[in-house]
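Predict the 3D structure for this chain.
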Amino acid sequence: MSEKIWHLKRCHLFEKLSPDELAKIESKARVRKFARKGLVYLPADEADAVLLLASGRVKLCSFTPDGKQAILAFIEPGELFGELAIIDTADREEFAEAVEPSLVILIARDEIERLMETHPSVTLGITRLLGLRRRRIERRLKSLLFRSNRDRLVHLLLELAEQYGATTAEGVRIQIKLSHQDLAGLIGSTRESVTVALGELQAAGHVKLARRQILLKGLDSLAQSVQTEPPRLPAAQGQVIGR
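Done. Predicted structure below.
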């Protein structure tokens, strides 16, 4: 099995495809490597392909009218991004940047459209992906409009726990390194405001901070403080680490 097909099979959208179908996608797909902080695409670039992250990590961002960077999402290996190219032939509106050295597979829009016409599982998967991304954006927009800076940060930490949390002897560790500026970009705030809010949460015993890593302590009480349900941790939460 070629490396490119191996990466394609890691994407849940393609896991039900036959070897012949995977080989057909492989023959038309392009592979690109990006160094840390390398730009995968820019606003106004032609949206002519859907991208699959094979390895590394990518963040999707846009700029606010006052020039601040807003982080829309982090993309992990096995995930598709740039999926709006399927339904909109206009240029891209956000930009994508490699957070760490990354390998990206570009799949032409017409190839994805062909798969959607012939494989209902691909169509359903992409529909779910669009719905999930839309819900996350709507939830973040609601947070920006109606919540305080502290509450926005708490909701974000709970969301990150749901995506990247790992149970340890001390609490739930968020297994993605984020700077205060990254957190600010995710909640539409400033680095200074995030630093103050994190300090308050740490003083209250809700979080523990160390070298761009965040440990959440008392997940239930933290969720209750913003009147929401505790997050569902990733499937591997049963293994306690950090002893």
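Residues 149 and 193 are 7 Å apart (CA to CA).
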